[in-house]
Amino acid sequence: MEENDNEIRDLSAELAKEFGEHGTPERAEFDEKAYAFYTGQVILDARKSEKITQSELAKRLGVDKSYISKLENGNVNPSVGFFYRIMNALNLRVEITRQVG
Question: What's the pTM?
Answer without folding.
Answer: 0.76
